[in-house]
Each structure stands twice: as structure tokens, then as C-alpha cells.
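Suppose you are handed a protein chain with no further information: no name, no annotation, nothing but its sequence. What can you learn? This example shows the usual starting point.
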Amino acid sequence: MSDSQKKNQQQEKLVLHAPQAGHEMSFHKHVIAGATAGLIEVLVMYPLDVVKTRLQLQKGTGKYTSVLSTFQTIIKEEGALNLYRGIMSPILAEAPKRAVKFASNEIYKPLFSDSKGKVSHSGAAAAGASAGVTEAFINCPFEVVKVRLQSTDALGLYKNTMDATMKIAGQEGPLALYKGLEAQLWRNLVWNGAYFGLISVMKANMPKAESKGGDMFRNFISGFVGGAIATTLNTPFDVVKSRMQNIKTGSRPWTMPALIRLYSEEGFRALYKGYVPRLLRLGPGGGIMLFAFDFISGLLK
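A reasonable first move is to predict its three-dimensional structure. Written in C-alpha cells, the prediction is:
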């Protein structure tokens, strides 16, 4: 065998392909890789999530007019540490949430594969959407607590994540921790379906990487583009979800009527409140998450 052939074989061994990793790694390693990748994404991108929620909860026009002004207002009026207010909830949720996302995505793939075990682009999207729905049931209580802590209404109301959880469950009932679940199901279904489907399409059409570093860059670009487009598609559901989860008393409408009402009362732009910080977070965040998942998967394998 020539030196060039040996070199190509070595490079192929180094290349990591996340969509196929499920056939090479055990379930618990998928859990570890997914949880760690998600935790890294949260620690890097969380302040944008706080800004996003503030913009989404603001009805009409108010003191938050843009991403930059929201950052400035929070820092000036509340201190820079409030950009991380409520972060403990997503940190606690991140391990089970991301682990479920990636591990269940691998479990669902065979259900949408052909007789030869090959998963089409539509099959990848369907598996991702199914994984997103599964993830929502686990993550919803953490989302409720996070939104409450991020809201300006909660300043001085909740001391910390545990205090918020106990007060929400005690004052509003345990089921209050599942407020906005239907909207979150829609949000996750759309985002994960688009994200994993687009990753499948992009990886099939991008030039094949010739090194480990090249493959990781390829995965980052796929995750970045997939995350950006998925965020564009599902932001209206996220706006409605945030508003539902911030309601402390009174009835909560179903998602579609809530979207129609939001559009009729505040206009089309209201459906995309918080879109820019979501895009800034979930575009790069999608790339960071897939990059970290591939890297950690490689270490575990």
C-alpha cells in the first residue's frame, strides 16, 4: 500500500460524522456528549437569551428597543450579573435536555430509515422533530422557571431558581410548571426538524473534508446555517411560549389562537420579537453545539 493510501486511511479514521455517530457509540456516551455540548453552548450564549426574553415579554413599544439597548439598559439598571439571571435553571436542564435531544434523535433515526438502514433528508428531519417533542416534556418546567426569573416582573419576587420553583408550584399548582407546553412542543418540533434536516442536506452537498479539523469546520457551518434557518421558522412559537409561561393567573389560550391574537393586536413584527438575539444565539449556538458534540464524541470513541 502506498504512503498516500495509508495517509488517506488515517484521515478517514479521524473524520467524525455526527449523524452516523449513533451507530458507533453507546447510548450513555451519546448522553454524555449531548449534555456536555449543550452546557458549553449555554455558558457561552446565555446573556442573549435574557435579552431575547425581555424583548418578547415587552408589549408594544417600551424601553427595550434593540439588542444593544437592552444589554445597556439591563447593565445600567440591574447590573451586569443580571445578564446571567436564571442561568441555573437551564444549566440544570441542559444535561437531560441535550442528552435527550441527541440520544433520542439517534433512536428515532431507524424508524425513518429505508430497508437498507439509510436515513433520507426527510427522515433526518422527522427524527429531529420527534426528538424535539420528546425534549419538550423534560425541559418545560425548567423553561417556565427561566422565563419567570428573566422577566422584569420577577425582580424582587424570586430569590433564586429553587425559590422560584417552589413559589410557582405552591402558589399556582404543580401543573403551572408545564405552562406553555403546547407552544413549546410546536417550537421544538419546528426547530429540531429543520435543524437536523438541514444538517443532513448540507453535509450531503458540501465538499468532503480531508482532515479532522476540516470535518469539524464543516460541521460548525452546517450547524450554524441549520440553527439560523430553524430559528427563523420557529420564533413566533417561542414568543407565544414565553408569554404563556409568564402568565401567573388567568386562562391561557392554545398556541394558534394566541398567534392570531398577537398578530391582530401588535402586528406582524410582534411575532418576531427577540428574533435578533435568538438568531445571534442559536445560529452560532447551533454550530457550537454540533462542533462540541462531534469533538466530545470523538474523545469518547
